[in-house]
Amino acid sequence: LDGFIAGPKPTIKEPLGQGGEQLHEWVLKLEAWRKPHGRYGGETGPENDYMKEFFNRDGAVIMGRKMFSGNDGPWKDDPNADGWWGENPPFHVPVFILTHNKRQKVIKQGGTTFTFVTDGIDSALAQAKDVAGEKVVGISGGANVIQQFIKAGLLDELEIHLVPVLLKGGTRLLENLGDAKLKKVKVVDFPSVTHIKYHL
Amino acid sequence: LDGFIAGPKPTIKEPLGQGGEQLHEWVLKLEAWRKPHGRYGGETGPENDYMKEFFNRDGAVIMGRKMFSGNDGPWKDDPNADGWWGENPPFHVPVFILTHNKRQKVIKQGGTTFTFVTDGIDSALAQAKDVAGEKVVGISGGANVIQQFIKAGLLDELEIHLVPVLLKGGTRLLENLGDAKLKKVKVVDFPSVTHIKYHL
């Protein structure tokens, strides 16, 4: 609610910074989140249906290097580290990682591949579109990567999952956006989260 | 959308700072806003009904000195200045102004009175409650005054009128709130604005 998508001082133990996990409580309880993460159970119903559809839209995902392998931790300075995503990552589609370090594509279980892109966001987008087919390309984060795509005019849609949490500090999403203009196209309100969709 | 309730550099010509007027376009077109401001016409319908009820809830209003008489302008250093509210201000209820300068109560047309309170927010609230009767006491602004009330645990309800405008700078509302916790109680979405009501 106060604009931060992660709290202050992200670490390997608190990748979303101090208090940042509160932002995701609403989704962690849903089957739509638990299933791709290899966990049993979870709530079903309209909130879950909404997020199931949301997650299923992506045919490919783009993320930044820090989201892939963390800000610190034992692999911080290891350009070959896999990060925290494990052997069966929750994406289940090809993932393109923006990085300065060239490395070979990594094939994981469950349909996730990690491809490392060293020549910028346009290249990552072109590669992701190639494999996404009829589905969309999702920009996963972090904030800086999303901002780069918005500033370059390459983002079509932004969806904010608004929760009444005040983090008081951390990483803001909606800054460094150049001259971007947003148009609200849809609001879907559930007890624990309000989804607001914008077109750019 | 990026958290600012006024843009950068407020002046007498742009009291809401650079670009800040964009935040209010949705309400300026409504009859519910135009009528108390002494203007004819304006849109009616569900958006208007909602705001009419919103405005009519207040039995008294509290505001800061800067909201009353501006940040600059010819009256900047004049402790007796009336500010920009004219002879028939839009409040039509008693208004309590937090200030460091003692002065006599001012009686305007249309039911608005300006009472100057020099002994802090608790005193202003007690005086406002006394005259509000069955109606509520509205905290008008600016941000600093709202923050003081929230931090002191004196605010029961906060309603955000969210518009897809990025001001890129200015005055933020949701900071300096102490340990305040918010609970979302209602979302009402219209094409040009999304109202989100929180209880504290």
Explain how this protein is built.
- The structure is a homodimer of 200-residue chains.
- Chain A is an alpha/beta fold and 200 residues long.
- Chain A is built from six helices and ten strands, in the order E-H-H-H-E-H-E-E-E-H-E-H-E-E-E-E.
- In chain A, the strands form three sheets. Chain A has a five-stranded mixed β-sheet.
- In chain A, strand 4 and strand 5 (113-117) form a beta hairpin.
- The two termini of chain A are 21 Å apart.
- At the A-B interface, strand 9 and strand 10 of A face strand 9 and strand 10 of B.
Question: Which properties best describe this structure?
Answer:
homodimer, globular, 6 helices, five-stranded mixed beta sheet, alpha/beta
**How is the quaternary structure best described?**
homodimer
- Alpha carbon gap, first and last residue of chain A: 21 Å
- State the shape of chain A: globular
DSSP summary: helix tally of chain A: 6
What order do the strands of the largest sheet of chain A run in, or round the barrel if closed? Answer: 4-5-3-2-6
Profile the largest sheet of chain A.
5 strands, mixed
Portion in strands of chain A: 25-35%
The average pLDDT of chain A is 93
The ordered H/E elements of chain A are EHHHEHEEEHEHEEEE
Measured by residues with Cβ under 8 Å of the partner chain's Cβ, the largest interface is: A-B, 21 and 21 residues
Unreliable spans of chain A: none
Helix share, percent of chain A: 10-25%
The total strand number of chain A stands at 10
Classify the secondary structure makeup of chain A into a structural class: alpha/beta
Task: Output the radius of gyration of chain A.
Answer: 16 Å
